[in-house]
Amino acid sequence: MLCTIIGKLQPALKRAQLLSSLQTNPPWRLMPIRASSAQSAVVKLLDSCLVLDYEGSRMHLNYVWLRDHCRSESSYNSQTNQRNLDTGRIDLNIRPHDTKVEDGYLLLNWPDGHVSKYGLQWLADNSYEGQKQSPVQPRILWNSDIYKNANVPSAKWDKFMSCDDELKKFLQNYVLYGIAFVDDVPATVEATEAVTQRVSLIRETTYGKMWCFTSDFSRGDTAYSQLALDRHTDTSYFQEPCGIQVFHCLKHEGTGGKTLLVDGFYAAEKLRQRSPENFELLTRVPIKHEYIENSDKHQNHMRGIGPLLEVYPWNKELYIIRYNNYDRSVINTVPHDVVQRWYVAHRELTTELRQPENELWVKLTPGKVLFIDNWRVMHGRESFTGVRQLCGCYLTRDDVLSAARGFGLQA
Ligand SMILES: [Fe+2]
């Protein structure tokens, strides 16, 4: 079931992996060192690295890495969280003379007499093995039923603007689901701007800071029409697509125009389960997206290059989907046989994205502001009649996630 928090490692699994590893690896060459506290640690110095067993996990720590990550005052400024040490001056063949574990810390004596001291939990959290087994950003993946059954509450304008706890809840929902709503916002561009600035900084683009559009074809983009729009991510033609999209429908006198939302990561994870080779191909083949606009008022030629799906190499966690069939440009960097396989993989992902049960349809009304993670959740709309005025903006992704981390959320 995908409606779980992806990437959470079961402690039992960790213990099983350690047991299996202990059975296949040779015994310690040095005497095991045990911490005096209840939390035991076993340290072994190999030629190539230090091996630390702690709390059921085995970690392999490179010696240069250990010296580079020394947290002593001369090596690291804990006030600014910046490195003082010149990494370029570390002997690449460095090894500690001796080591001991004391009161939850690992101590290393280096050949020049310097002593480094590391918290065991800090090492466990920051080792490759630790990072490999934990998600950067825990998420709840959803289809329409999962999202509706979760009954995720919307924030309310008054409280949202004045109460940090309301903002924290909003950010938690946003981080987990990739969408979040604020209700009862005054139906003006100014109030929409204010509500977005409560969350992050606005990312100014060729469309301006706050944009406000009707179906007047004022720009060379299908968005400025009354036509239906299939699911897509925005600004795939930027080298770094915009992180967050904000929509606020200020007025609609007519019919239709419902907004479509699809969790791209839910569909992509389905693809990964069913056809891992097709998923992997979509993470490897770089594709171009372009936006070319040539009018009296606007000249633009944007180009973004990157695969449809990107995963972190150490834990295979998906972190961005670029999917915009309108703006996908000429495929001219891939040999013909790979192109065929890419189209097969693209078709399988497209089929999953188009499953009706994955479609969440929302009617945006004046007062309801929608925030979308544009690196994850796709949007579209049905065609409409009448005058429909929509305003919104893009937000910088780094600042939204920074705000979430400021509240202690994992993001
Ligand atoms: Fe769009």
TrEMBL record:
GO terms for biological process: carnitine biosynthetic process. Residues 155-394 form the TauD/TfdA-like domain. GO terms for molecular function: iron ion binding; trimethyllysine dioxygenase activity. Belongs to the gamma-BBH/TMLD family. Its cofactor is L-ascorbate; Fe(2+). InterPro entries: AlphaKG_dependent_hydroxylases, GBBH-like_N, GBBH-like_N_sf, TauD-like_sf, TauD/TfdA-like, Trimethyllysine_dOase. The gene is tmlhe. It is an enzyme of class 1 (oxidoreductase). One of its GO terms (cellular component) is mitochondrion. Residues 55-123 form the Gamma-butyrobetaine hydroxylase-like N-terminal domain. Pathway: Amine and polyamine biosynthesis; carnitine biosynthesis. Keywords: Carnitine biosynthesis, Dioxygenase, Iron, Metal-binding, Oxidoreductase. Its EC number is 1.14.11.8. This is Trimethyllysine dioxygenase, mitochondrial. It comes from Sphaeramia orbicularis. Converts trimethyllysine (TML) into hydroxytrimethyllysine (HTML). PANTHER family: GAMMA-BUTYROBETAINE HYDROXYLASE-RELATED, TRIMETHYLLYSINE DIOXYGENASE, MITOCHONDRIAL. The keyword 4Fe-4S does not apply. It catalyses: N(6),N(6),N(6)-trimethyl-L-lysine + 2-oxoglutarate + O2 = (3S)-3-hydroxy-N(6),N(6),N(6)-trimethyl-L-lysine + succinate + CO2.
